[in-house]
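INFO  loader      accepted 1 record
INFO  loader      residues=389
INFO  predictor   begin
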Amino acid sequence: MLRTLTKLIVATLALAAASVPAFAEKRVALVIGNAAYKNAAPLKNPRNDAGDMSAKLRTYGFEVISGTDLDRNGLERKIREFSSAITDADVALFYYAGHGLQVNGTNYLAPVDATLGDEADLDFESIRLDLVLRQMQRSKRVNLVFLDACRDNPLARSLSKASRSLNVSSGLAAVDKTAGMLISFATEPGNVALDGDGRNSPFTTALLKHMDKTDASINDVMIEVRKDVMAATNSAQIPWENSSLTGQFYFNPNRSLTGKTAATTEAPTTTRLITVADSTVEHTFWTSVESSKTPELYKAYLERFPNGVYAPIAKARLSAVRSIAVEPRETATSTKTATTGTKFANLNTGTATDASTTAPIATAAAPAVVTSAPVANPYMRSKAVRVSR
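INFO  predictor   done
INFO  writer      dumping tokens
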């Protein structure tokens, strides 16, 4: 019994330790980090930003499509892959770190091979942000966009010099008409964000930090990100977001089990988060003990899952197993050695008679014969017993 219990506990703990969060909703993310620009000075942090963000999102149950230092064709392929993956997704997230610019109010993302010599180059050398947003808005879902793409951009400066009729800015423009979507910019529209001196940019550093907070909605996260970035940059950079979400969204899967999950574009939702440790481990534990006749195993289940799905059944089984264990001891006590003066019930009449001699019940040479019948006397507890040799 002890060996079985030990194996069960070890197996359950191993499964719990190896488990990764799972969600009732499908979550998909596209994460891009472009740093090694061929026609502009390379950026220090976007590869780190994208790599760290990809790792973090996977711990939150996201299927991550990622790419770094992508040329135009590579970036288009990743967007197409993302578009296919989010067809049935409940949450879609796009994160981009690298150069971006706005021209006449339209936002563009810069592949690493971009060359912007004139206005026509925008169509062939860059990717419009609208291309990604259109894919995300094809279905009603939670859409989250994080753009750490407002860095000081020499591509924008060269385009501005070549085409003075264009209104070109290294900063990105505000995005309108984004139903069911939150778009977060590393800094306010038209301003330039910093690449940062550490491993990550100020914006991504703060975002990675605050995504981990339990019971923090996306709105709570972005408020804390804004405060951290303003403190780190002496208010030179102020993160900004456009949001039309109609409910709350939570990144962290380790929230309280009764908390809210992702919002929808129609109404806020409140559901119970499902994790491997919460459902599969409990089910595995229960199926290991449900047929047992050992009280300790049911007790172990109830200690591990006091409010579990199978807790009422476990309590009933525990009581039943305990009563079965007690009943044989009571029967054995009633059939111990009978001595002179012990009264035995008459099987036919229910009356008691005295035994005249000491009568050992069971020996190796002459085993006792025990017979029983229903008791006529209502005051007798169970069965009338007569012992004969």
